[in-house]
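Field reference: sequence -> structure
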Amino acid sequence: MERLQYISQGKTLRDQKNNMLKALDAGAKWIQIRWKEAEEKDLYALAEEIRQACSEFGASCIINDHPSLAAAVDADGVHLGLDDCSVAAARHLLGAGKIIGGTANSFANVKQRISEHCDYIGLGPFNYTTTKQKLSPLLGIAGYENIIQQVHREGLPPIPIFAIGGISQLEDIQHLLEIGVYGVALSGIVTKTPNIVSSINKILL
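Structure field:
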């Protein structure tokens, strides 16, 4: 599984598409299409085009929130928020070969996601971020370290944990890796400076 996820940004179809294509061109190998305000037809058109682009770049294409859309465009998987459909329902719809990720904000959420047998967890937020409404309490380095230690203490099955939310410094990525985070899900920093992907990939090796 790739260790860098790019989560798309943009208010218009054109912005969304351009930002994802730039990330792919810069070396991103995992794209999550996240466009909360989109009209259904625009989101479908975007998903279809980006899935094809990801295929050409050898990258994974994940749809945020919409397992039915992921199935319709044959995306590589779906990422589910805590209020979205269940992992089991998404798995039934998409099949065993697809990737299903789940959001978590606390150790209780992580434990729940592991019990649901999702493929990875997006745990956050790390820091303040403007890309998410109704922000949960910030975790910071200490929060991630505490949760990962609890996972080990309880002997829970290992699962890739991605830090997400307000990660804007390369040093932060290094610190997160040192405490046992598997990877990072980034949005703003890659949207603003796509070429930073190569530097991030070097840290994540």
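Note: The longest strand covers residues 99-104.
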